[in-house]
Amino acid sequence: MKALVKRHPQVGLWMEDVPMPDVGVNDVLIRVDRTGICGTDVHIYSWDEWAQKTIPVPMVVGHEFVGEIVEVGSNVIDFRIGDLVSGEGHVVCGRCRNCLAGRRHLCAHTMGVGVNRQGAFAEYVALPMTNVWVHDPNIDRDVASVFDPLGNAVHTALSFPLIGEDVLITGAGPIGCMATAVAQYAGARYVVTTDVNPWRLALAKKMGATRVVDVRTESLRGVMDELDMKEGFDVGLEMSGNADAFRSMLETMCHGGKVAMLGIPAKGMAIDWNLVVFNMLNIKGIYGREMYETWYKMTVMVQGGLDVNSVITHRYDCDDFESGFKTMMSGESGKVILKW
Ligand code: NAD
Ligand code: ZN
């Protein structure tokens, strides 16, 4: 089968012919239809320090996908050939304390699809049945293909109650833009989304931000005055991984404000801990999606009218993956989809 492979420990990816994946008794085999390019895939393409430390070569990359089941293992009874599915990209151990307690998103031994085990940028991918989510057959397939990052946005945005709250989202990347739409859908009063990239701020505006802020030219304080926000933001969603963005969030939260942190800082970052202590902030780290409460919530929100279609800005054939990665790296895109 055709697959996009990290073949050599250097910049790039290679479209190759590789053997079909093995299908174990507890696995399903999926014919991949579309895939989304994630920031993680870009790190692997660019072969940065993180990728060099993390990715065993060769590796079929990719984890955001939608496709149809074409084969099931002998233990699999509740998935059928033809089901439209995506995969949860974290394969958990099932045996650690958190897994046994049903808190699988907190597993101590998570393996990443397309990171630590063979991925989904391929004609076929095999996954344990415990990692398969069956879609409403009427769902838009492009949206279904990005359920993994939509899940990051939903997991983060729904970490704290949002009805009537003023929400600050730092970072208008694809996930920050989707979180903007989710926060509006979930009943926030104001959603203020920041970035340093005008193209992405325009996308956040299109996806429902009350106000977008280019922090290079505008102050958050000024925007708070404009909106007559007297005490600061109630909820902060950090989606940039940028230290300045995080610091400015801590400075503009209300007393007792709640912060969910999804963005991954490239290196250690110092903060003013007095802001956390004296403003009595509550900071929560987010990794991945809750299995499977997040998947349930995003499914019913999309069925109920949550519209994230605008985040999908580019579509390419998988053979033209170089254009897809180039578009992602340009910063002038939302989600980029490859058709298999
Ligand atoms: P992205 O890199 O496309 O978006 C980040 C955005 O932050 C960019 O648009 C960038 O211009 C913006 N930014 C940079 N400096 C800023 C500043 N000072 N203020 C405001 N914005 C600034 O990433 P994404 O795919 O949307 O993902 C968002 C973040 O979440 C990334 O850090 C990513 O690594 C991380 N992530 C975490 C998980 C997890 O499970 N914790 C999963 C997926 C992604
Ligand atoms: Zn576990």
UniProtKB/TrEMBL annotation:
- Give the residues annotated as active site: T40, H43
Site: Important for catalytic activity for the proton relay mechanism but does not participate directly in the coordination of zinc atom. Where?
D148
Question: What top-tier enzyme class does this entry carry?
Answer: oxidoreductase
Subunit and partners:
Homotetramer.
Pfam families, alphabetically? ADH_N (PF08240), ADH_zinc_N (PF00107)
The taxonomy runs:
Bacteria, Pseudomonadati, Planctomycetota, Planctomycetia, Pirellulales
Q: In which compartments does the protein localize?
A: Cytoplasm
The record, for Gene3D superfamilies, names: Medium-chain alcohol dehydrogenases, catalytic domain, NAD(P)-binding Rossmann-like Domain
Recorded catalytic activity of this chain's protein: L-threonine + NAD(+) = (2S)-2-amino-3-oxobutanoate + NADH + H(+)
Quote the protein name from its UniProt record. L-threonine 3-dehydrogenase
Instruction: Write down the required cofactor(s).
Output: Zn(2+)
Please give the Gene Ontology molecular function terms for this protein: L-threonine 3-dehydrogenase activity; zinc ion binding
Specify which residues bind Zn(2+) 1 according to the UniProt entry for this protein: C38, H63, E64
| InterPro entries the record matches | ADH-like_C, ADH-like_N, ADH_Zn_CS, GroES-like_sf, L-Threonine_3-DHase, NAD(P)-bd_dom_sf, Zn_alcohol_dh
